[in-house]
Structure of Fe-S cluster assembly ATPase SufC:
Amino acid sequence: MSVLEIKDLHVSVETDQGTKQILRGVDLTINEGEIHAIMGPNGSGKSTLAYTIAGHPKYHVESGSILLDGAEVLKMTVDARARAGLFLAMQYPVEIPGVTVTNFLRTAKTAIEGEAPPIRTWIKDVRQAMTDLRMDKAFAERNVNEGFSGGEKKRNEILQLELLKPKFAVLDETDSGLDVDALKIVSEGVNRAKTNTGLGLLLITHYTRILRYIHPDFVHVFVNGRIAEQGGPELADRLEDEGYDRFLVPSNVG
Ligand code: ADP
Ligand code: MG
Ligand code: MG
């Protein structure tokens, strides 16, 4: 049974105006197979949490820890995090000129597994995953994210998720900008990953819409760099009705 534990995490960034505290004591435990939704207003630090888990160098961990099955993730290189079973789909996926989707996937799979996947089953797996995600075959030979539409970028991330089979994934606003059909397809992919590999998921979203297709076990309201409230799926329904207003106390108090 795998577990990802975030403990009293404090994170800052350097800005022109000096050091800015963003995360102010985040505690969160995700067990294998669990889906945790993080919801919160813009600027509350959701992406910062995602980037910190991924090891983005801009985000400075002041204190706290992130443990994957007891091992300190914060001491791992970005590559080691992927090998350990972490996956991050960013809010703004980057283009990789000169690297095709096929080559990227195979290189990533090889790096994570420590050996190249057997060619025949691999090709079959890639084709199947692309079909499941309703992706055109021609897509495989295009450069990663180059000229991809918003929806294509998101599908490509879920393609990676399904093929790389991480233990835990962080999806940062994977739902933003998707029409309802694309949202369903992407959600089905995530749900398959959960069923097939026991994926644990941190699903960051601003809107409740995606939670109709990916059912969270827990919902956390993220405000001002920390979890302000947590509950079950009913909390998402309440947020849909009430918004985040009741959490937004003036930040200059205290
Ligand atoms: P969210 O994803 O919840 O919208 P972010 O984590 O993107 O929030 O941002 C939280 C706060 O930290 C915002 O005020 C944002 O401007 C600031 N911030 C995030 N990253 C940086 C950065 N690299 N440099 C300066 N400020 C940043
Ligand atoms: Mg934002
Ligand atoms: Mg964000």
